[in-house]
TrEMBL record:
<dbReference type="GO" id="GO:0005829">
    <property type="term" value="C:cytosol"/>
</dbReference>
<feature type="domain" description="Luciferase-like">
    <location>
        <begin position="1"/>
        <end position="313"/>
    </location>
</feature>
<protein>
    <submittedName>
        <fullName>Luciferase-like</fullName>
    </submittedName>
</protein>
<dbReference type="GO" id="GO:0004497">
    <property type="term" value="F:monooxygenase activity"/>
</dbReference>
<dbReference type="InterPro" id="IPR050766">
    <property type="entry name" value="Bact_Lucif_Oxidored"/>
</dbReference>
<keyword id="KW-0503">Monooxygenase</keyword>
<dbReference type="GO" id="GO:0016705">
    <property type="term" value="F:oxidoreductase activity, acting on paired donors, with incorporation or reduction of molecular oxygen"/>
</dbReference>
<dbReference type="Pfam" id="PF00296">
    <property type="entry name" value="Bac_luciferase"/>
</dbReference>
<keyword id="KW-0560">Oxidoreductase</keyword>
<dbReference type="InterPro" id="IPR011251">
    <property type="entry name" value="Luciferase-like_dom"/>
</dbReference>
<dbReference type="InterPro" id="IPR036661">
    <property type="entry name" value="Luciferase-like_sf"/>
</dbReference>
Length: 354
């Protein structure tokens, strides 16, 4: 099991300045490098405290690349629908070069109506724009004199510079939280999977992982599939303190997503069946239920070790875990403590038990 960190800020100017948040996050990047974490990832969102401090994860990851030599750097995920594929392929290829081949490129459809409205793009086009965008980026990475004549973009013949360091291209992940069709399509295309257990039931997570693995196998891909799961995480020597802080963080994160999805009350799209129900996402405090189902990794080092072992037993010990250690609501000292306790007291035991 590989374990890294993912940054998903859920704060705005009333909580903390963006400058302070990024200073804190880059401190934690240094810590991830020093303590042996596998990777650092950053999301892409706009406008709301729900991820809005990160409209361009590549910018943050380029800063992280300049101060690290070992950890992998991942988008979580960048949105092809919101940028021309020539621009996106070039930005990601630059990052792969700056980091000496440490990029993991995850792509997502996006799901917030306000974001699509701002870019002047129809929600109904999201899947086709996503598919075309990813394939066009891969073509630019791998083909000289590349030409594309799609539904949304046309270019070529052009040869992208710089070429990616990783050949034939950086690992490609698809971020999917709800759609089984997206999971199956990713596996058929040979794309790895990123998903969020917090957004589904334990049974639904098992169904998605099983579908991904079986579809990948049926497609005959030579490489082993990668599955990345993201979890909020708070660790303390005091279990009560960890749960108190974890509950606060979960409540603030839920409030942030509740505000961001409110427009689903008056929005519908055939590309997002059932998403209208997201408007009720903040209706109750589900911290205890989520903790019991290991959707949140919160507690003492031994308690979180037990949670990680249960996750591995359910999902496979080859999964990659991304820990949300700093949404911005708890202090950076809390995130620092979480990472140090994991590295010093959890990772060695996890390796031994594995």
């Amino acid at each position: 099991m590989k374990i890294g960190i993912v940054f998903f800020p859920t704060v705005g100017p009333r909580d903390k300045s963006a400058q302070d948040y990024f200073d804190e996050a880059l401190h934690l990047v240094d810590l991830a490098e020093d303590l042996g974490f596998d990777h650092v990832k950053m999301v892409e969102h706009y406008f709301f405290p729900y991820g809005g401090y990160s409209p361009d994860p590549v910018t943050f990851l380029a800063a992280a690349a300049g101060r690290t030599r070992r950890v992998r750097l991942g988008t979580s995920a960048t949105i092809p629908a919101f940028v021309h594929p020539v621009k996106l392929a070039g930005k990601l290829a630059m990052l792969d070069n700056i980091s000496h081949g440490r990029l993991d490129a995850a792509f997502g459809r996006a799901f917030l109506p306000d974001e699509f409205r701002a870019f002047g793009i129809s929600l109904d086009e999201s899947r086709s724009r996503f598919t075309e965008g990813v394939e066009a980026v891969k073509l630019l990475w791998t083909t000289e004199n590349a030409e594309w004549n799609g539904a949304f973009h046309r270019f070529g013949p052009v040869t992208l510079l710089p070429r990616p360091v990783q050949q034939p291209h950086p690992p490609v992940f698809v971020a999917s939280a709800r759609s089984l069709d997206s999971v199956a399509a990713a596996a058929r295309s040979g794309h790895h999977l990123q998903t969020v257990p917090n957004a589904m039931s334990v049974a639904e997570l098992g169904e998605r992982i099983g579908l991904f693995r079986s579809t990948w196998s049926a497609a005959g891909h030579r490489a082993a599939p990668q599955i990345q799961l993201s979890f909020p995480c708070v660790v303390s020597d005091s279990p009560d303190e960890a749960r108190r802080k974890g509950r606060l963080d979960e409540q603030r994160n839920t409030a942030a997503i509740s505000a961001a999805v409110r427009s689903w009350q008056s929005t519908s799209s055939s590309a997002y069946p059932g998403y209208e129900s997201l408007a009720n996402i903040g209706g109750r405090d589900a911290f205890d239920d989520k903790l019991a189902d290991d959707k949140l990794l919160v507690g003492s080092p031994d308690e979180v070790l037990g949670q990680l072992e249960r996750v591995a037993a359910r999902c496979g010990d080859d999964i990659v875990i991304s820990l949300g250690v700093h949404s911005g609501h708890l202090s950076v000292r809390d995130a620092d403590t979480t990472m140090r306790l994991l590295a010093e007291q959890v990772f060695p035991k996890l390796l031994t038990s594995g």
